[in-house]
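Progress against Task 2.4 (sequence-to-structure conversion) is shown through the following example record, which the project officer requested during the mid-term review.
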Amino acid sequence: LQMSIWEERRNWDQVLRLAQVISKIDWAADFWGVYGLYYDALVSAGRGEIAEGEKAAAKLDTYLKDKKFGANWAGLYWNIKGRLELGKGNPQGVADCFKRVTKTYELPFFEDQFNLANSYLMAGDLGKAVDILEHELGRYGTDRTDVPVKAVKAHYLLGLAYEQSGWNDKAIEQYREFLDIWKDADPDLKEPADARKRLKRLEGSR
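Structure tokens generated for the chain above:
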């Protein structure tokens, strides 16, 4: 949970520091070896260091294959590739990568579906973004409660998708829901500020 908080705040130094602590717990264990490489790549992607991120992603891919990890673990690799495509400014590439993430699991996790919906939204594929977000917000599993920040931000994304689709009343409902749950938590993040601005404009246009 602490790692996800630092990610949301884009504090990549803290993410890397915590990842290093985790990897030292037992680097000899294959499990932690994977996550050490994963977070090296994630931090590079987050910082916009695309070339370094690509190198780290390649190391992760090699490690997964050398250690003969199952197909499910390939999702970590495609997650990183999606983040790198985002850094390149390639929305369709982001969507393609996160679609591959969801296909690595029999039942995709909420976080993966969130990322896929977000990539569709960036690519302008509003119908697919709406379908995923409506479905995910209509179910309550532990994979959703495991990522509480994204579970709340899903309302914001759905609001954006509705607004861009011209469904302003539905967008208003989602922005209100998002802000009601968020309240005063991390007011300096861009999403709540943007949601307040959009909500005020939409309510004023009624």
